[in-house]
Amino acid sequence: MEKKLTQHPINLIKVVLFGPESSGKTTLSRHLARHYNTVWAPEFAREYLQNKWNNERKTCEKEDLLPIATGQMELENSLAKKADKILICDTDLLETKVYSEEFYGGFVDDKLNEAANKNEYDLYLLTYIDTPWEEDDLRDRPDERLEMFNAFENALKKHNKNYILLKGDKETRLKTATKAIDKILLEKKDLYSFSDSLQDLDMHFLHQNSGDFSTNFEY
């Protein structure tokens, strides 16, 4: 598998927001990261495609999908090192694969397909389309929201992913999501924590320099 599309090994709970456009993924990503005092990995495609639109007045093309996937994994792997036990991912490569299939007649780059199938996450939060459609430069197919939602759910089922469906207002979604994540937190042990690693580093520094500090107080 393409090395740039591979997850770096780290003992974290990885949660993916998964679903069609304008279904509340980014909002919930922020809320979950705040709730668990951790970081979240935004959708690389948003910035990439917005820049393309601003500079070329072009939307996503087939050739953009692999660079988008590579950028997403670089972002995820980088932010994983700064997470505290949980990493919230606004998207993953399986989502990119679904878009590729739906927008380009079933086409999926072989490297993207392999990585999307092999990268692993603890929980997928499938966001339903009971949120208002918010138009912008990049979003399209507002009349095909149900068809896109079905494509995303079918992908989760096809690949045997652990997922729950999120419906309702922001508070309801957050409550449902945290209940599922808390259950995983109880089951997984020795999770990586960036905050703990910083504290360990500080303690190591103090221990290493304790002798130097004592000499400063000689009379």
Automatic annotation (TrEMBL):
Domain NadR/Ttd14 AAA, chain residue ranges per copy: 14-173
GO molecular function: ATP binding
Keyword vocabulary terms for this entry: ATP-binding, Nucleotide-binding
Domain of life: Bacteria
Alphabetical list of Gene3D superfamilies matching this protein: P-loop containing nucleotide triphosphate hydrolases
Protein name per the record: ATP-binding protein
